Amino acid sequence: MEALASDRPDDGRCRLCGLERINGSFPLVISSGEYQFCCNGCRQVFRMLSETGTSVGEVGRSEVLEKCRTLGIIPRSEQELKESGKPDIPKEKGNPSGSEHRLNLDLLISGMWCPACAWLIGEAARKQPGIEDVVCRFSTDQFLCRYDPVCTSPGAVIRFIEGLGYRAVLRQDGDSETEDQREWIRLIICVFLTMNVMMFSFSLYFGFFSRFSEETIRRLSFPVAVLSSLVLVYGGKEIFRKAIRGVSAAAFGVETLISIGSLAAYGFSTYQFLSGSIELYYDTSAMLITLLLLGKRLEAKGRRRISKDLSLLFSLVPTKVKICTDRFPQGRYAPVAQLKTGDCFIVSEEESVAADGVVIQGDGFVDESSLTGEAKPVRKQEKDRLTAGSRVISGGFRVRTEAVGNASFLGRMISVMEEALSRRNRFEERSEHLLRWFIPGIVGLAVMTGVAGILWGIRIEEAITRSISMVVISCPCALGIAVPLAHVAGLSLGLRNGILIRDFRGVMNSRGISLFVFDKTGTVTEGKWRLMEIKLCSGLTEKMVLGLAFGLERSSSHYIALEIKQCAESRGIEPLTVTGVELYENGISGRHLDATVKIGSREFLKKEILDSTAIEPDQKEPGRWEEPESTHSSVYMSYNGSLCAWFRFEDVLKEGVAEAVEGLKKGGYGLVLVSGDSSWTTEQIGRRIGIRKVYGGQLPLEKVKIVDELQKNAGPVAMVGDGINDAPAMLQADLSVAMNSGAHFGKEASHIVLMRNDLRQISVFMNIADRVQKKIRQNLAWAFAYNAAGIPLAAFGFLNPIFAASAMLMSSLSIIGNTLLLIKK
Q: What pairing do the DSSP bridges indicate for beta strands 530-536 and 499-501?
């Protein structure tokens, strides 16, 4: 085997297993050379072993090799190799419990050296009975699958992975999987105990029809008391603890009400039990705890489903990266924390990009859908930028790091989402304020109802039951989750559609918006001016004109200056010496030899233009010589007091702008276009995209005045801009929408960011905002209606505590279910 894994000439056989390459060749290039393999399995195992430091000569003696043969990952004969080359045919794995009973498993894997390790784990797991939909990601150390609990278990999957030489543990999230499983076990045990409590209680109820002896009552009551005590101690421990914390912090929750109700029922039942009475409510006490545990589990499941897209975003952060160093020029995997700005790293197929950077070598396609919502693969090649969190579909890249960690695109997105999740809107603040007084008010009202009932002549037992029912049926959790859950669903839904909701107030403020104000440059147009044409009108050559312009503009960072410099450099034109450079509001001037050179707007060179014989008299007024439907602007140049040339620049319209404008018009919104460019140019752009009301030549503070005036005359206004130059106007607007400016989107003054830079997303956002607001209003209306109807019914004795607890549970679940409709695909 060692001879096979050497540098001998290619003989048509696999360099790992030695079989003839009958299904074609699977090449692998590593630092020690290029090797050919008979299948992808051999290729990946060889790659994995070489990454662990195993020398090429020792690969054939590795224990892993034999284990891979046993698992069927490496063919043991030519027959197996032939079979592996046939198209995959779906196989029945045997699912006695039905596909609807498959469960999800999320593991954290440690000990993986390279992507081949992840491939090995995934391939091996797919061959195990009861496991399907396997995904193993090397970059995030994540293993995902669905399993049949009849055929296997999480423990068995973990043991299997550990048998391959890796360590696997249940992934710990904010509400960890381990904790979730523990709570499900707690619920199951409490359900079992409560069922037995109910069974003994039913036996006791027969005592109302057939008189029991005191001994019989005690014998039946004792196990009920013991079992309900176990439910309260084991099942209600955390509930009581949260209730005590809530009372001490004056932050009451549903745990407070359930604790009061269950302990009141338990205390009263214990008094009755010691008195020898048959009127016991231990079943009520146990059922209240069990129903709350059930509600919490179902609520947690609903929350996870609602925040699934957000969880996906947070899970995109890779944990390791292949860093290139002088010692390891082909890269060596290391923790992503070791990656620094300026480092080079390699990213291959199926890997996630660890940091923002520029491609210095490589070509391929990447998936940026988790960042932008756009499912279409994007081609990247040399000099293109890669963003952290995107996944390589095909090809591979060598990347120079520009931003890592929290400074990367993904890091800033996560920071923005965390801030948006933590920031409360006015509805949540009002709900919290109401809840602060709701629960003490309900408890006080329940006590008053019980006392009033006793004074009215109702039996003490009945009065206590009514009070307990009032406490239990009131549903503060319905009020508490009505808005926050829709908040999370809105953020998740926006992210799914490539819309980053930085501030949820934007969603709430969208209601009533009557008019959209668009900035031109960078919003409606690309903001990247291209030099389309140079018109000469004197004896100077184009080379000299560009050389003079290059020399005059070489120190400027204006976008027009940058385009002139780039054009000159691309033609190999060197800058001519220009001295005494002076900047003006709408132009620049300097001296070349003894002549004055100027470049600027029509206003800056008005005299030279009027004196020029190269421009017809009827074209000397602004805009007369331009094409009627053009989107270009002109910059003029004079030499020694005479007009020598003018440069025609064109700013390209963004894709889908006209469709976006038409969609908003159909929605009944008014539209305005503002720009710092000339009024004529702004009018032409407005005419082309279908916006009639335009304001040209506006400085940033003048845009603020325009927005303010429109708010006074038209009502709530939305401002759409690039989020940087338009920040003052966006702060003034009721709703601010920013284009994705990459390096700045986390700092801009906007409520939402269009991650695809597509204005058609505005209509999508308005639809999402409308749906979210409707759900909030529906949830709040239901919560108030439920409490308004349920509390009086309980006060007048129409509900017992168990029915009250069931109604409380259904109220919360109805709000969760209604909110889930938002994210239904």
A: unpaired
Asked whether 752 and 502 are in contact (CB, 8 A), the reply is yes
pLDDT in tens, 742-779: 545 544 568 888 888 889 999 999 999 999 889 888 88
Return phi, psi of residue 417, to 5°.
-65, -40
Positive/negative CA dihedral, 387, 389, 395, 399:
positive
Q: Are 644 and 613 in contact (CB under 8 A)?
A: no
pLDDT per residue over 157-200, tens digit each? 988 888 877 788 876 544 455 667 788 888 899 989 988 887 87
- 91 half-sphere exposure, CB direction, 13 A CA radius: 11
How far apart CA 274 and CA 41 sit, in angstroms, is 72
Say how far apart CA 145 and CA 128 lie, in whole Å: 12
Write down the residue that tokens 């039951």 correspond to.
465
Q: How many residues does the chain have?
A: 825
Residue found by looking up tokens 């819309």 in the block:
499
CB-based contact 36:14 (threshold 8 Å): yes
- H or E element in which residue 26 lies: strand 26-30
What whole-number distance in Å separates Cα of residue 483 and Cα of residue 487? 6
Q: Any idea which residue has 């829709």 for tokens?
A: 486
Q: State phi, psi for 602 to the nearest 5 degrees.
A: -60, -40
pLDDT at 503: 83
3-state class (DSSP) for residue 746: coil
CA 700-704-710 angle, to 5 degrees, is: 140
d(CA 51, CA 726): 51
Planar angle of CA 89, 94, 95, nearest 5 degrees: 120
Residue 776 CB-density burial (10 A; 0-12 exposed, 13-18 middle, 19+ buried): buried
The confidence band for 388, taking pLDDT boundaries of 50, 70 and 90, is confident
3-class secondary-structure state, position 189? helix
> How far is 239 from 249, CA to CA, in rounded Å?
15
pLDDT digits over 774-825, tens only?
988 888 888 788 878 888 888 888 877 667 767 776 777 787 788 878 877 5
Q: Looking at the predicted structure, is the pLDDT value of residue 54 above 70?
A: no
Could you give the percent of the chain with pLDDT greater than 70?
78
Q: Is 804 in a helix, a strand, or coil? A: helix
pLDDT attached to residue 526 = 77
Q: Count other Cβ atoms within 10 Å, centred on residue 794.
A: 27
State both tokens at 568: 């000159």
Q: What Å distances lie between residue 555 and 490, 543, 743, CA to CA?
A: 47, 20, 24
pLDDT computed for residue 717 by the predictor: 92
Cα gap 267→498, rounded to integer Å = 55
626: CB partners within 8 A, 6+ apart: 632, 634, 680, 684
Q: What pLDDT score was predicted for residue 90?
A: 40
